[in-house]
Amino acid sequence: MVKERNSAVVATVVLVGLLVLHCKMVEAVTHVVGGESGWTYGVQTWPYKKKFKAGDTLVFNYSPKEHNVVSARKKEYDKCNPSYDSKVYNTGHDKIIVKKGENYFVSGFKGQCASGLKLFVHAE
């Protein structure tokens, strides 16, 4: 009888854990960066008045012959100079999960970041 009760408690705890995990996953939202225009010049204003949460996905749509996406640190973002070890995305349909806090992205193609092809997103 005690063994059955312990098994029921364990099963209940596992079920509640799975439900909480599922709820967290359901909360994540997919955002298409730049909307219909995609990852292009002027995208810096796109996040205004939008709310982002850690775990949300940003989808960067662009022509890989014309652009790429580089995950950057604040200093690299400000100076448009990503470091050699920065993560580079170049598929033209990149899906990047945002982390809590500041998330910076720039184009790694010469001159594009300085011309406005960069993005900052703050996630709660």
How does this structure look, described?
The protein has 124 residues and is an alpha+beta fold. The chain is 26% helix and 25% strand. The protein contains two helices and seven strands, in the order H-E-E-E-H-E-E-E-E. The strands form two sheets. The chain has a four-stranded antiparallel sheet with strand order 4-3-6-7. The protein is globular, with a radius of gyration of 20 Å. Mean pLDDT is 88; it is low at 13-20.
Helix residue percentage: 25-40%
Low-confidence stretches: 13-20
Shape: globular
- What proportion strand? 25-35%
- Order of strands side by side in the largest beta sheet? 4-3-6-7
Helical/strand content category: alpha+beta
Could you give the order of the helices and strands?
A: HEEEHEEEE
Tags for this model:
124 residues; alpha+beta; 3-stranded mixed beta sheet; 4-stranded antiparallel beta sheet
Q: Helices, strands, pairings?
A:
Blueprint: H1 2-27, E1 30-32, E2 57-61, E3 69-72, H2 74-79, E4 88-89, E5 93-97, E6 101-106, E7 118-123
Parallel strand pairs: 1-2
Antiparallel strand pairs: 2-5, 3-4, 3-6, 6-7
Give a short synopsis of this structure:
It contains 2 helices and 7 strands. It has 124 residues and is of the alpha+beta class.
